[in-house]
C-alpha cells in the first residue's frame, strides 16, 4: 500500500506527504507517513480512498509514552463494500487489488480529483463478471464493461439486478442487442441508478453499461475521447479474450489487437492501467507495446513499486500509461 499511497499523494497532495514507511508500535505493524499538518477535508478524503486502509491514527504522545489517536476516515464510497465482495466465482480478481488498479490509474490522469467526486468515467474492456464494474459503482462512477463471454454477462446482470432490488436502490435496467451496420454483434444491458432516491428522481444518476462483444472489435461501439480511465486485468496465461477466428492465447497479441479501440475511447489526459503477469508478459514488452500505441508510460513515484508475487505462477505488476 506504500506505493499506492505515494501515487495518491503525488496526484492529490503534492508536496504534503513526506516519508512513507512501515512502522511498528507496541509490536503491531502499521504503514506510517508524515504530513505537514493533521489530515482534514480533501487531504483526509484522498487518503481514505486507499484500497487497503482499515483505520487511520495520528501519532501522539504524553507522559505515558506514545499514543495512537483514531482519525475518522472520510471514504468517497456511496455503496457498501458487499456490492464488490458478495459475488464469488473461480478466477475472481482480488477485490482489494481491483481497487488498487483503479486508484493508481485514476491518479495518473489529468483529473485525479474526479475519482473522489464521482465524475470520472471508467472502461474495463475485459470485465468478466464485473469486479471492476462493482468497484466503480461503489465509488459513484459511470462505468462500461466489455466481455464476449455470455455466461459472464448473464451472471453479472443477474447479480447486479438482484442486489439493487434487495437493497431497495432506485434503478432502471434495460437490455437488448448490440448492432453495427445492421449486424448483431452481441447483447448488452444498461443500468441507471442512484444511492439517493432524491438524486434518482432529479436525474442525478450513475450509468452502467455492459457490452457483450469482442474487445478487439470496438470500432463504432464506444464514443471517441469520452473515457477518463481504462483498466484491465489482462490474461495470466490461459485462454481468454477475442473470440474471432480463434482465441487469442498471447496476452501481448490480444493487447496489440485491442489497444486501438481502447485508446480511441480514451480522452486526452486519460490513463490506461494494465495488470500483467510478468511470467507471460514482461514489463518491458508491455511498456513498448503501449508506447507503440501512442501512450506514455508512467514510471515516477509509486508507479515503479506495484509489483508483487501472487503465487509461483503469477508475478503480478501494474503498468500505467497516459494519453497525451
TrEMBL record:
Example GO BP: tRNA methylation
Keywords noted in UniProt: Methyltransferase, Transferase
Pfam families: UPF0020
Protein name per UniProt: SAM-dependent methyltransferase
Domain Ribosomal RNA large subunit methyltransferase K/L-like methyltransferase: 119-245
PANTHER family registered for this protein in UniProt: THUMP DOMAIN-CONTAINING (PTHR14911), TRNA (GUANINE(6)-N2)-METHYLTRANSFERASE THUMP3 (PTHR14911:SF13)
InterPro entries linked to this entry: RlmKL-like_Mtase, SAM-dependent_MTases_sf
One of the record's GO molecular function terms: tRNA (guanine) methyltransferase activity
UniProt keyword Disulfide bond present: no
Amino acid at each position: 500500500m506504500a506505493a499506492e499511497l505515494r501515487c495518491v499523494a503525488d496526484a492529490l497532495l503534492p508536496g504534503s506527504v513526506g516519508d512513507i514507511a512501515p512502522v511498528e508500535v507496541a509490536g503491531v505493524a502499521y504503514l506510517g507517513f508524515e504530513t505537514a499538518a493533521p489530515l482534514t477535508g480533501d487531504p483526509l478524503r484522498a487518503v481514505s480512498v486507499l484500497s487497503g486502509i482499515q483505520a487511520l491514527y495520528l501519532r501522539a504522545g504524553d507522559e505515558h509514552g506514545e499514543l495512537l489517536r483514531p482519525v475518522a476516515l472520510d471514504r468517497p464510497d456511496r455503496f457498501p463494500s458487499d456490492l464488490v465482495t458478495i459475488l464469488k466465482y473461480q478466477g475472481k480478481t482480488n477485490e482489494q487489488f481491483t481497487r488498487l488498479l483503479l486508484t493508481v490509474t485514476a491518479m495518473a490522469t489529468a483529473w485525479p480529483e474526479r475519482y473522489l467526486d464521482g465524475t470520472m468515467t471508467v472502461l474495463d474492456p475485459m470485465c468478466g463478471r464485473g469486479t471492476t464494474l462493482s468497484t466503480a459503482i461503489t465509488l459513484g462512477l459511470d462505468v462500461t464493461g466489455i466481455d464476449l463471454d455470455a455466461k459472464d454477462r448473464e451472471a453479472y446482470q443477474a447479480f447486479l439486478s438482484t442486489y439493487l432490488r434487495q437493497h431497495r436502490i432506485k434503478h432502471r435496467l434495460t437490455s437488448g442487442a448490440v448492432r453495427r451496420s445492421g449486424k448483431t454483434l452481441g447483447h448488452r444491458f444498461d443500468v441507471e441508478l442512484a444511492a439517493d432516491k432524491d438524486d434518482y428522481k432529479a436525474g442525478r444518476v450513475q450509468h452502467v453499461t455492459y457490452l457483450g462483444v469482442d474487445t478487439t472489435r470496438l470500432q463504432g461501439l464506444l464514443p471517441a475521447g469520452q473515457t477518463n480511465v481504462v483498466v484491465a486485468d489482462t490474461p495470466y496465461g490461459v485462454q481468454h479474450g477475442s473470440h474471432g477466428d480463434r482465441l487469442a492465447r498471447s496476452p501481448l497479441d490480444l493487447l496489440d489487437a485491442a489497444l486501438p479501440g481502447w485508446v480511441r475511447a480514451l480522452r486526452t489526459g486519460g490513463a490506461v492501467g494494465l495488470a500483467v503477469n510478468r511470467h507471460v508478459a514482461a514489463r518491458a514488452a508491455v511498456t513498448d507495446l503501449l508506447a507503440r500505441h501512442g501512450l506514455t508510460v508512467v514510471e515516477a513515484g509509486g508507479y515503479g513499486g506495484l509489483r508483487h508475487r501472487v503465487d509461483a505462477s503469477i508475478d503480478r505488476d501494474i503498468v500505467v500509461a497516459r494519453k497525451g
